[in-house]
Please model this.
Amino acid sequence: EAGVVQSPRYKIIEKKQPVAFWCNPISGHNTLYWYLQNLGQGPELLIRYENEEAVDDSQLPKDRFSAERLKGVDSTLKIQPAELGDSAVYLCASSLGRSEQYFGPGTRLTVT
Amino acid sequence: DQQVKQNSPSLSVQEGRISILNCDYTNSMFDYFLWYKKYPAEGPTFLISISSIKDKNEDGRFTVFLNKSAKHLSLHIVPSQPGDSAVYFCAASARSGGFKTIFGAGTRLFVKA
Model:
């Protein structure tokens, strides 16, 4: 069974540029999460989807971040414009309801 | 406000001995706890979980203990193996909080051969 797929794995952009990350969850998993992980910290939730509905986006900086999960399967997270402080690893995870989460390898974003 | 705290940034253990990783939490509404393991350049991988109705859960070499009165849980790995060297994250969630999972900062375990 394929795991959670994320692309790209690495991205380097200049500040004020836009960037997008893509995630394909495990087949059949209705819950999808986007996390941000800074160095030396644990993952912090940005947004959680139940099917195509965003049920928790309270930590998503909506002035520059957006996300979508069309048809309740794969998802895209966008930052526009990127700031230096956005440099981090962006993790996608999926689960069946409240069960344990399965994480993708993450996208390491560097904003210069 | 850190609701889930892992106060030891790192731990070093000899191969074959027991590794004990600790985690404290502040939110008494947490009712489900998990441990994840992370290798470099990979995402976290689920290891073991425990519901608040239990005080112990065991899976092979891994055992999680929950002390609700102390708001403390620990992960025991015995015997420790060099392949266990990784970062371990403690996580907690609450039904009342919409099941949002809060992660600790992680503890890096080194198992020396």
